[in-house]
Every structure is written in C-alpha cells, then in structure tokens.
Amino acid sequence: MAATTCRRDISTELAYWESVPGKAIHIDFTIPGGEERYNALKDVRAAHPVTIHDIRGRETEFTLDRNGFQYIRHEAPGLENCSSEDEFAAALVPETEKLVQKLTGATKTVVISNRVRCMITDTAKRADSRAPAFAVHSDFTITGALHHLEKIIENPAEREQLMKGRVYVINVWRPLKTITRDPLAVCDWKSVEPDTDWLANRFMFSHGWNEFGGVVHNEKHKWFYLSHQEPSEPLVFAQFDSKEMENGGMTLAHSAFVDPEYADSNARESIEIKMFAFVPDGNS
Which family does it belong to (predicted)? Predict the structure, then answer.
C-alpha cells in the first residue's frame, strides 16, 4: 500500500561538480596514477544548498517525456522472500522490463546492469559500490550512451535500424524497504541547461571506456523526491533519449541526499535496474 504521509520538502546540500577547463575529465586507469586521479575527483566537487521538493500527492504531474522521470505504481510480490542480489534480480528484472515496455512503447529492452545498494558507506570503487552515490551526476553523456549502444548491439545494420526509432536508456530505481535514510533526488529536465550544466567524465580501462556526466551547479535546477517511497513505487528516469539529442539527450541528473531527520536511521535498501529500451520507428 502506498505511503500516506504529509508532503515534506527538505533543505539540504548536494555535491555538484565544479566547472573545469574543457568541460571534461578523463581518467585513464591503464597508466600509473589513474587510481590517484580518480580519488582526487572529490576535489572538483562542492556542496551547494538546495531545496528538494516532495511530490507526494502530486505524482501524476511528472512524466518521463516532459520531466525525464516518473513514479509508477507497480507491485512487486515476493520481495520479502529474497535475501541476495541474484534473488532480487530474478524477481524484479523481467517484470521491470515489462513495466518499461508498457510505459515507453518499446518492443525490445536489453538490461545493462542491476545493483543493490544496502550499505551506509562502502570502500568499493565505481560500479562496485553498494552505498548511496552523493554526487550530482548522470549515468551517461550522449557520447557515452551511443558508445555503450555499440557494445550492446554489435551489428551495425541492426543498430542503424534501431536508431531510426527512439532509443532510451532507462534507470528504474526501486526501494526494497520503505525509504527514510538517504533518498534519491532527481532534477526536472525542464530546469536544466544541458550545454552549460554538464561536463564529461570519461574512464578508460583495459577493456574499453565509459563516459558519465558530472553536473555543474545552476540555481535554476528544480529537485524532487518522493517521501517514504515504498517498493511498490519505483522511480523510472531517463539516462538517454535519442529523441532529445539536440537538447542534451535527457541524461537526467540525480543524487542521493541527506535527510537530516533520518540521518541516523538504518542504511537504505534499494535496487537499480538499467536498460536500453527500443521504440520502433513510427511509435516514438
């Protein structure tokens, strides 16, 4: 059953990236010093005060196409019987693909990754971390999303055909228990200026590279969350939309944040399932 709490906006801080020359950060882990340069990224971030608005009771006002995110009512029976990441994935990934297909009109989805976050802090790096991510970012830039698409769909002819339609990268973020500590905030796409607010962060490994977006502070940004979000209330948000490539690609900014009222509560438990979604030409 959905939460029935009063709406509650929160004044807190978010860690934004500072603007850097060239608007790009490249970290090459294949050469000496890569790990040290990665660890130093915290020095190009700074905390800025923000108000994060609670949309409890206003959920239907926000849609994936207009704002870049949408909260969906979607029951997930059987979660109480899961105890490992593999069990959660087995229970949720197929149903989440169906949810995204219904929401977007996609006829094909390809899951990129899934990850459970269930720790307050974690010394693991990058994609291995099981703690909330407290820096304002997007999971891809346009360049990063298109590069990842080449890895997922290796056949150029198939890729070209898919790009004739609409291609999304969708992140579905779902609580495994009601969220109190360290909720997830999303930034309304209508409030951003993609040309000036984003800088590319490219990580190069022996097996290839990926590129995500660091986000620079802008007072126009409007932030939202859903108070006491429950497992039946997943957040669906865009990390790339080929229809929006001339307007920044809808690589939606997001970040965990500290809610002072619940700063000492148990670690939040959530799962994120990320996928490509392909909407055929004519249906997008």
Answer: Belongs to the asaB hydroxylase/desaturase family.
